[in-house]
Structure formats: C-alpha cells, structure tokens
Amino acid sequence: MAIDFTLAPEHEEIRARVRAFIRETVIPAVEEFEGEREAPREEYLRTIFGLRRTARAEGLWLPHMPKEWGGMGLGHVELAMVQAEAAKTRLGPWILNCAAPDEGNMHTLLHWGTDEQRERYLRPLTEGVATSCFAMTEPEVAGSDPTLIRTRAVRDGDEWVIDGHKWFISNARRATFAILIARTEDDVPEGARGATTAFLVDLPQEGWNDVREVETMHGSTGHSEIVISGLRVPDGQILGGRGNGHRLGQYRLGPARLAHCMRWISQAEHALDMMVDRALNRYSHGSLLAEKQGVQWMIADSAMELYQCKLMVLHAASKIDRGEDFRTEVSMAKHFVAGSLNRIVDRAIQVHGALGYSTDTPLAGMFQHARWARFADGADEIHQMRIAERTIEAYRSTGSTSSATGGLPL
C-alpha cells in the first residue's frame, strides 16, 4: 500500500496561487478594517465582495465543488492544502466560497437534492449570490445526539406544519434558506434513527422567528436562536427523502468535520510561527527565549502535534477520496486537531506573556475560537465514545484492532 501525499505539479501550482492570493491580496485588503469599528460598512462590504469576484476570476473559487458546478474539482487531499492556505486569515475560506456552513450544505445538496432542488438552492450558493444555514441543534436536548430532536413536522395536506426550537444556528441571520431537521415519524421511538426528515426552508418566512444572536465568549458571531411556530413547508421541499434526516446530517458532518480540521491546522501553524518568532526576538535573563529549554520544549511539543495533525487529516482525506469508510479516522482527526489547536495557541500565548493575553496580537481571539473547536461538530467525549466502540467491534470481528487504527501497513 503506497502512501504518498506529494501533490501533483498542477495542484502544487494551485497551492502557490492560493497562498499568494491570500498573502498578497486578501490579508492587506482586510487588515485595514481589523479593529476599525468606525469603518464604513459599505466600504467593508464593497472590499470583501470585490475580493470574492477576484477569486472567481482567478479560478480560485469553490475548491470543493465539481467543475460542472463552477468549482475547482479538487479531491479532499488537495482541498486540505487549499483550506490550510485560505484559513491564514478569517475571511479566506469565505472569499473562496468554501466556508462553513455553506460548504457542507453544498455537498449535501449535490448528493441528496433533486435536479430541481439543486438548481433552486445549490446553484445560487455556487454563484455566491445566496447563503444558507443548517438547523439541527436544539437547547432542550443534547446537540451531540440528533436522534433526540424535538422539533416536529406534521403533515397537513400537501404541506408540513413545523413547530420547534433551535439554537446555535450559524449564519441564520444572513441565510436565504435553511436545511431544517425535524421529527416526522411517530412510529420510531425517541433515540432511534429514522425519525427525522430534512426540509428546505426559504428565508425569511412566517413561522421562522430569529429571536437573538447567542452571545459567546468571542462575542455575537452569527449563531442564532430560532423559535419555529406554525411554519408551513410544501411536501416538495423535503430533502433526501422522508425519514432520512439523521443519515443526511451524518453524511454532511463527516467531510465538514475534516474541513474544520484543515482550517484549524492553518491557525495552529500560524500560532507556532508566532511562537518561534517571539522566541527568536525576545531577550530575557541573559539569553533569547529560543535558547531556554522550557521554551524549546513548548516549541517541540507544538511541532510534533502539528505534524500528527497534518498526517491524520491527509490520511482521512485520502480515505474519503478512495470511497472507503472514513468515520473512525475523521473522528480521531477531529478530536486530536481540536485539542492540539487549543494547546498550541495556549503555548504561543505563554511565550508572548502579557502581550499574548492582550488583543495587540491575534492570539487572544484565536484562543477564544479554539475553545469552540472541542465541542463543535461533536464533543471530544462523543468522538472518544465512537472511536472506542469501533475499536472494540474491530477486535470482536477480526481478533485485531488494526482496522480501527487506520488500517495502515504496519
């Protein structure tokens, strides 16, 4: 079994172009708005939408989508290097139109949508003229167990009437449509799969009430609480077939989790770069920080973890590209990369001292966002539970845990 993550020349050329575009065009353009609360919103919007048009004109648009949909047609291994370059700045993935939640929703619509649904909902997303959200999480039940969803849809003629409560619905206030998961099957016991259905909901719409933007430790960032009351959706707006809400959600979350990891690796690498730069330029107690063993250990631990992160993501991506079962590898990557991001950014703050704790560097903001990574798209403990279950099952089935640890030739 050959394992070779060397990029083909054409993909190496794409990475170089993405890197140059982000560093030379995007970052200088958005930096002038960072921290400038009084900057005219019209000017800011004009700038970032102009960057989107430039990205599209330069062929750096939709790296995750097939060419027939206007994308770059990259596999997940190649996508990893694009996401890692794009995420060097917060808006990078959005400018290339490969940011969450739209990226995952595009994959979902491409796989599950009818021809009519793809033209109506997927096409505007790929054109960059629409935005979307994915409404699954609820405050009353564990977000890590979507089989417990209480939002209910009841058939009424050719329509469904939906009532329920959602929260932490990212991008809801800007979305032109939602993929909404609701319980439709009464004969399926609570906690079992097959009880829910996905609906396409045009926004704004009567019955969809955006109550508030949930304040988090890094501010109000577009995660909405939604109360759904008497929302009417035509039967033709079911996405992926009745009773398939759980399957659709899990299909969406697998590659989406890995895409998060790709972006988190970029942030971790940025933090490590800052850590080393600080160590090479800060003099204290007779020597540079880079010459002190305690600091060297922090750098070494971060470098080793980042190496592991990259290998895990690339291997999981290669399994997706080959059409193999990737669930365990993605769970492992998601758990490990999220934790590594937290640890590496924390070490970078420590090496910077009080400066790292201030908002004079991006580290404080990076640390706030990093904490979210350990429960987004499945809490650490849920992934550990699933990894353990599959490891035990592998041993029961074959007498070996090898297949649960990557199925690698060693």
TrEMBL record:
Record-linked Gene3D superfamilies: Acyl-CoA dehydrogenase/oxidase, N-terminal domain, Butyryl-CoA Dehydrogenase, subunit A, domain 2, Butyryl-CoA Dehydrogenase, subunit A, domain 3
Keyword set includes Oxidoreductase: yes
Annotated Pfam families: Acyl-CoA_dh_1, Acyl-CoA_dh_M, Acyl-CoA_dh_N
Cofactor(s) required for function per UniProt: FAD
Domain Acyl-CoA dehydrogenase/oxidase C-terminal residues, every copy: 243-390
Domain Acyl-CoA dehydrogenase/oxidase N-terminal: 9-128
Keywords: FAD, Flavoprotein, Oxidoreductase
Domain Acyl-CoA oxidase/dehydrogenase middle residue range list: 133-223
Subunit relationships: Homodimer.
Family the UniProt entry places it in: Belongs to the acyl-CoA dehydrogenase family.
The name this protein goes by in its record: Acyl-CoA dehydrogenase
